[in-house]
Amino acid sequence: MNIRTLIILATFLVISSTTFAQYPHPSKVDLRFDRWYTFEELENAMHALAEAYPDLIQIKSLGKSVGGHDIWLLTMNNSATGPDTAKPAMYIDGNIHGNEIQAAEVVLYSIWYLAKSHGKIDSLTKLIDERAFYFVPCANPDGREYWFNQPSTPHDLRGGIRPVDNDYDGLLDEDPPDDLDGDGHITSMWAPDPMGRWKPDPDDKRFFIRVDRDDPPGGWTRLGQEGIDNDGDGQVNEDNIGGYDPNRNWPSEWAPTHVQRGSTDYPFSLPETRVIGEFMHEHPNIAAVQSYHNTGGMILRGPSVKHISYPRSDDQVHEELSLLGSKIIPHYKSLVTWKDLYTVYGGQTEWTYEGLGIASFTNELWTDRKMFNTSENPSEEDRRQFRDLLQFSDVYVPYREVDHPTYGRILVGGTTKYSSRVTPTWMQQEDLHRNFAFTMLHADHMPQVKWGNLQVRSGPGDLWEITAEVRNPKIIPTILQHARNKRIGNPDMLECMAGPGNRVVASGTVRNFMPWEKLDAQETTRPHRIVNPQGVGRKGNRIFRFLVEGEGAVELVYSSDKGGSITIPVELAPTPMADMTPPDTSLLIPELDS
Question: What is the pLDDT of residue 7?
Fold first, then answer.
């Protein structure tokens, strides 16, 4: 064990049994989720989990960010039940926008909770044993590190730190905001102005209010965010650090910057998106995707542009899961991106569905509706009361006088970077857990092929008729309709592996097990292999038939990119129809009325 590992474990492992006794299922790694982790702390937590659970978690770097940070991938898989690539898998990431910090916390929480639950909670143990998970807690480490370590607002730094000429003056990142009063936050600047249309709120001096059109001037003008004219061009803060959006850098409906701000030069032009895209493309077993963002309390699904429509059957899959999710996570709304939010060109989860054929969601963490548990968005007065009565005014910065090189004596102050978007730390763990639970529901409904009924009948001479049913009891089909339409990925396949004393002479699909049922035979020189481009549908089944000549035994193997692989030996002897599916006694989550 190296020095780094010892330090990490010393930091995160439980110090006393008393600490762990407070948890229903103790963890080997003592993490708290009533706080946020810096990127360095997040890295240490990831490595601590991998060291504590080596039989379940493997960690590796997918590559480096613009700033040289690792893009860490944690693979959770019980290797005793098979390799991760042979199982349906779920990809989960967060924090592609640097300022959306609790998105990384929910991914870290998911890893932590799953690991400590294995062998203790039956439903989660079953899920880990039968499926695989790929976690990227922080898809934008540069942006996260900047947000924690540099003066920021709730909204910056959204992208990364690659220099961009945002104002087209030939210079790069030369005029970002400036922390004029040195408090670690970028707040607002206010200047006295005889004709200004703002005035201090007479009821609360922490705020300015706009005067009515017919009222006399208020005496103050808002100058925008803290900053000076660093490059002498007469503008303030017009060329911030970076200026691109990693969640507009994916191939689906990508558009150049004059159409979609922040899209950069071409899809996957950023090292962070490229390494994630390459990994996902190399893992066709990924059957579900969840990306975490903030804010708004939304479970988003595509399409993200108006001119694209999804097949109705795929819409039903996404809608059913997201409606269940809106029950699991109160105050979250099930929405379609372009219709209910705004248009997005080059979004990540649009690409994972449209380009890879994966059922995908984006969750926007935290909603102000949770402030007082109301169904409607709170008023400004409600927000003020929440900040005063529950946050004890800790998100406000008092106004201070500073000397500005252009504007002279001004006021600087307002709200901190913690004042919005991020979940208050004392409310965070419930939000993390509910989002994790929705993700587990999604994972549980990844396709999973199972044998159904099996029948062997003797025919004339030494001919045998093998009829086998393949089922998918889950909401997500083995091949989504869009993937079928665009021929994305491999088709499902059923093979009859003949033995030394037999051979397959014909094969195809049938509608039922009746002996006179017409065989929809495949015209092929390889009758032992039935290609099934339709897959097995949502809570559906397909029935296949082989005609085998000879004696002995064969083996049936059904393989699906996203539904897994199953194998069953079959004796060439009369066998009455029998259901080969074992009873499932550990359903993950009871189905809810949608």
Answer: 55
Task: List domains and CATH numbers for the chain.
Answer: 3-148+244-366+423-444 (3.40.630.10), 165-240+379-419 (no CATH), 450-579 (2.60.40.10)
Closest to 44 in 3D by CA, of 28, 56, 34, 31: 31
The number of C-alpha atoms within 13 Å of 499 and in the hemisphere containing its C-beta is 12
* Contact predicate 289/358, CB 8 Å: yes
Inter-residue contact 538 to 478 (CB < 8 Å): no
pLDDT at residue 575 in the model: 86
pLDDT of residue 525: 86
Write the CB contacts of 70 (distance below 8 Å, at least 6 apart in sequence).
43, 61, 62, 63, 64, 141
Per-residue confidence (pLDDT) for residue 579, from 0 to 100: 83
Residue 59: count of CB within 10 angstroms of its CB: 17
> In sequence order, what are the residues at sequence separation of 6 or more whose Cβ sits closer than 8 angstroms to the Cβ of residue 540?
471, 472, 477
H or E element, residue 540: strand 540-550
Q: What is the pLDDT of residue 479?
A: 99
* pLDDT for residue 101: 98
Residues in the chain: 594
Residue position matching structure tokens 């042979």? 86
Residue ranges in the chain modelled with pLDDT below 70: 1-23, 582-594
Nearest to 423 by CA among 246, 293, 245, 328: 293
Residue 273 dihedral angles phi and psi, to the nearest 5°: -70, -35
